[in-house]
Amino acid sequence: MITVVGSVNMDIVCQTDVFPQQGETVLGQRFETIPGGKGANQAVAAARLGSAVKMVGAVGEDSFGPTLLATLQQENIDTSAVATVTTNTGIANIILHEQDNRIIVVPGANFDVDATMIDQHEELIQRSSLVVMQLEIPVDTVEHTLQICEKHGVPVLLNPAPARNFKTEWMDRVAYITPNETECALIFKEEVEVSLSKYPNKLIVTLGDEGAMYHNGQHIIKVAGFNTVAVDTTGAGDTFNGAFAHKIAQGSTIEEAVQFANIAGSLSVEKFGAQGGMPTIEAVEARLRGER
Ligand code: RIB
User: CB of 286 closer than 6 A to ligand 1?
Assistant: First the structure.
């Protein structure tokens, strides 16, 4: 069982052909409110591939909260450890422009996920084969969860996004860390290759449609990505993480997990919305066989 300790957001998405300058108003093409949040996205990605997933987090008492809970439940994710609190549900303001995105997250209820809440679910964490976290919940909560995982010998996959809140002393406590290139440079302040060689079989750097890289203890391995027609890249990194977690929890090697996660990530960008294009196991296997 995979436990995701992380954020649940409603994504408020505007698609525009023209990105507004400061002080300018432009007319957009499309508006949608769709489920998101790095935690929820990674939980959905793993669950859709067939993993048993439990989510620890929080939503608000507003109209978004129940909608997001229902979406997670439809994906067979156990939401019994997702609290409903008086703070508003977290939102992400997403501007889609030329197959790229700019995102402002207002954490809301996600910042009510505190150490007490984690302690309430210690037994659940103890029973997990893998705990997955990101950095859209308070840093202290991430740190506390890392301590609990360490106490029970539960491996942690940390996706350090947004990267600003990452603490390098956590490197000893995580089994896997999955920044993209920008996040990696921000965290370690050195060439990506140097960081990779310092953290073999632990640091996996994602490269978008170029795939991902890690160091296997002898040399850097680059696992190529898959060409695809991108409709919306939001959530591609989350799909990679959820798929990687799914394979690692099954006992796959890092190389197998990265290959699989690359395929899942490439499929995810073919549809609109962070969770819209996340593939099933059948879709990943079909792409692996070269069928689509
Ligand atoms: O990684 C994409 C996600 O980041 C979006 O779904 C949004 O909610 C933000 O958390």
Answer: no
